[in-house]
Write a structure and sequence with these properties.
This protein has 342 residues and is α/β, with parallel strands linked by helices. Helix content is 38%, strand content 13%. A seven-stranded parallel sheet has the order 3-4-5-6-7-8-9, with helices on one face. It has a two-stranded antiparallel sheet with strand order 1-2. α3 crosses α4, α5 runs parallel beside α6 and α9 packs across α10. The protein is globular and about 50 Å long. It binds NADP nicotinamide-adenine-dinucleotide phosphate.
């Protein structure tokens, strides 16, 4: 697989792997199967592996972020550190769909927490330096300059190579970039989640920051392979888009399926290829990170890096977002995602 240059000189595989998929979230899997998928990703050239301290199930009696996903990725890194560009995140302190207290503080970005979070991630990953370290969510009670300043200290200490930010507004990105170069913004961007194109994507293009679209397959919905039974058992069943508007959103899905059928590709490949096209149109490097528990789907997704969409396909796919019903936000608080603070 070819590579892509994000911001701040960070080079990654053209497609990344969304590691959240291999611990409990949309079904989950066992550790052996998870490690097979992680190894298969690296074998397929998908060497940019995305995790976060908050992903996975908390260990019994443990305090703080779950960390089990990072520990699994750590088992991959124990064997293959030199082959992998590892990205992790800190800052979410209440797990979505698990912590029931709606008043709990959902994010932390104070300098003391940032320092602790870095050391904890390094320990769980079993490595000396994190290649790309993201602020997962902005702490509304802390100036972003303080959070990024503390992150920059970790770079100076040799514990982190590059910095990233997730779900930031353009203004927050500009403020952060004044403290330290930002390699990538990771936010939701896909056929049906295009709010970032208004301000965040142009700001990234202007500042030379790369974009890492998360949930590039619409948490699986856009692939056309999900069933209602499947989503009823995980957090997707409780979302507006996939749960409440399952029927209404079939027309958006039909457009993706129509393009895929005409091109002899799969929905997943078309959804990923559209993101590359959207990145070229906006003038910035884009590295999507689809997640899967399946080795065969990994290969399918990897093939998307070579799928070039014709103008007719892009025009049809550009209509999908207008057909989609329901917010992309899976939390009741509108400020949880960047467009809610713009
Ligand atoms: N920064 C953030 O706040 C944030 C938020 C969400 C996610 N993320 C990151 O982004 C990554 C990807 O997002 P996501 O997992 O939410 O959604 P996604 O990648 O859009 O979709 C994942 C779902 O699609 C299915 N899938 C994958 N490839 C497929 C294929 N070729 N055909 C059919 N189904 C396929 C997977 O099911 P199977 O496992 O059954 O194949 C899984 O349920 C996460 O793993 C995580 O690392 C970050």
């Amino acid at each position: 697989m070819h590579t892509t240059l994000l911001g701040d000189g960070l080079q990654t595989s053209a497609l990344g792997f969304g590691g959240m998929a291999v611990t409990h979230v949309y079904g989950g899997t066992d550790d052996a199967a998870a490690l097979s998928v992680l190894n298969a990703a690296v074998d397929a050239g998908i060497t940019f592996i995305d995790t976060a301290d908050v992903y996975g199930e908390p260990l019994p009696g443990a305090d703080g972020p779950a960390g089990t996903n990072e520990r699994l990725v750590g088992r991959l890194l124990a064997d293959r550190r030199d082959e992998v560009t590892v990205a992790t995140k800190f800052g979410i302190t209440a797990r979505i769909g698990v912590d029931v207290d709606p008043t709990a503080k959902r994010s932390r970005g104070d300098a003391e927490y940032v320092r602790q979070a870095c050391d904890a991630s390094l320990e769980r990953l079993g490595i000396d330096v994190i290649d790309l370290w993201y602020m997962h969510r902005r702490d509304p009670d802390v100036p972003i300059e303080e959070t990024v300043g503390a992150m920059a200290e970790m770079v100076a200490a040799g514990k982190v190579r590059h910095l990233g930010l997730s779900e930031v507004t353009a203004a927050e990105l500009i403020a952060a970039q004044s403290i330290h170069p930002i390699a990538a913004v990771q936010s939701e961007w896909s056929l049906w989640s295009r709010d970032v194109e208004a301000q965040v994507v142009p700001a990234c293009a202007e500042l030379g920051v790369g974009f890492v679209p998360y949930s590039p397959l619409g948490r699986g919905f856009l692939t056309g392979t999900l069933t209602r039974e499947q989503i009823a058992g995980d957090i997707r069943g409780a979302t507006e888009r996939i749960g409440d508007n399952w029927d209404a959103n079939q027309s958006a899905l039909a457009v993706v399926a129509g393009v895929a059928q005409r091109l002899g590709a799969t929905n997943a490949q078309v959804a990923l290829a559209w993101l590359y096209a959207a990145g070229r149109r906006a003038g910035l490097p884009v590295v999507p990170i689809p997640g899967t528990r399946s080795v065969s789907r990994l290969s399918e997704n990897a093939a998307a890096v070579d799928l070039l969409l014709d103008d007719e396909a892009v025009a049809a796919l550009d209509t999908v977002a207008d057909l989609a019903r329901g917010t992309r936000n899976i939390v009741g608080d509108p400020t949880w995602i960047s467009s809610g603070r713009e």
